[in-house]
């Protein structure tokens, strides 16, 4: 049997001052979430960063939680982790699309976010992707956040990569 296609992974960014990352996870499928978080924590630690972990009920709450943390916390970047498995209704499409759209909009405002929300057809696909010794999608999401933090710092951002202020969000 032939091996599948491979992808290129960027070298881990290096930091003089390790970034502080908030991992926001929806542990709806607890064992899958635990694997994603383990991969993310290992990647952040390997880059010399620190992290906090907070849980939300589901994937739809992840963008809102990150938006709140960006306004009220002192984080350089964020990792969104969770798993959505296709069911019998169109709710799957809503959760996948809206959680991804929310994270994308926050990213376009300047937040450094790694999206590690798995969107899969079945539990087996999720297990392979969440396994830190397998596809390690949690580690990949953390790596994405770290690369965005590194870019933000390299470009000289003074606002810790948050990219927006309370008054730009209608609060000021």
From TrEMBL:
<feature type="active site" description="Proton donor">
    <location>
        <position position="91"/>
    </location>
</feature>
<dbReference type="InterPro" id="IPR002180">
    <property type="entry name" value="LS/RS"/>
</dbReference>
<dbReference type="GO" id="GO:0000906">
    <property type="term" value="F:6,7-dimethyl-8-ribityllumazine synthase activity"/>
</dbReference>
<dbReference type="GO" id="GO:0009349">
    <property type="term" value="C:riboflavin synthase complex"/>
</dbReference>
<keyword id="KW-0808">Transferase</keyword>
<dbReference type="Pfam" id="PF00885">
    <property type="entry name" value="DMRL_synthase"/>
</dbReference>
<dbReference type="GO" id="GO:0009231">
    <property type="term" value="P:riboflavin biosynthetic process"/>
</dbReference>
<feature type="binding site">
    <location>
        <begin position="83"/>
        <end position="85"/>
    </location>
    <ligand>
        <name>5-amino-6-(D-ribitylamino)uracil</name>
    </ligand>
</feature>
<comment type="pathway">
    <text>Cofactor biosynthesis; riboflavin biosynthesis; riboflavin from 2-hydroxy-3-oxobutyl phosphate and 5-amino-6-(D-ribitylamino)uracil: step 1/2.</text>
</comment>
<feature type="binding site">
    <location>
        <position position="28"/>
    </location>
    <ligand>
        <name>5-amino-6-(D-ribitylamino)uracil</name>
    </ligand>
</feature>
<feature type="binding site">
    <location>
        <position position="115"/>
    </location>
    <ligand>
        <name>5-amino-6-(D-ribitylamino)uracil</name>
    </ligand>
</feature>
<feature type="binding site">
    <location>
        <position position="129"/>
    </location>
    <ligand>
        <name>(2S)-2-hydroxy-3-oxobutyl phosphate</name>
    </ligand>
</feature>
<keyword id="KW-0686">Riboflavin biosynthesis</keyword>
<comment type="similarity">
    <text>Belongs to the DMRL synthase family.</text>
</comment>
<dbReference type="InterPro" id="IPR036467">
    <property type="entry name" value="LS/RS_sf"/>
</dbReference>
<feature type="binding site">
    <location>
        <begin position="59"/>
        <end position="61"/>
    </location>
    <ligand>
        <name>5-amino-6-(D-ribitylamino)uracil</name>
    </ligand>
</feature>
<dbReference type="GO" id="GO:0005829">
    <property type="term" value="C:cytosol"/>
</dbReference>
<dbReference type="InterPro" id="IPR034964">
    <property type="entry name" value="LS"/>
</dbReference>
<protein>
    <recommendedName>
        <fullName>6,7-dimethyl-8-ribityllumazine synthase</fullName>
        <ecNumber>2.5.1.78</ecNumber>
    </recommendedName>
</protein>
<feature type="binding site">
    <location>
        <begin position="88"/>
        <end position="89"/>
    </location>
    <ligand>
        <name>(2S)-2-hydroxy-3-oxobutyl phosphate</name>
    </ligand>
</feature>
<comment type="function">
    <text>Catalyzes the formation of 6,7-dimethyl-8-ribityllumazine by condensation of 5-amino-6-(D-ribitylamino)uracil with 3,4-dihydroxy-2-butanone 4-phosphate. This is the penultimate step in the biosynthesis of riboflavin.</text>
</comment>
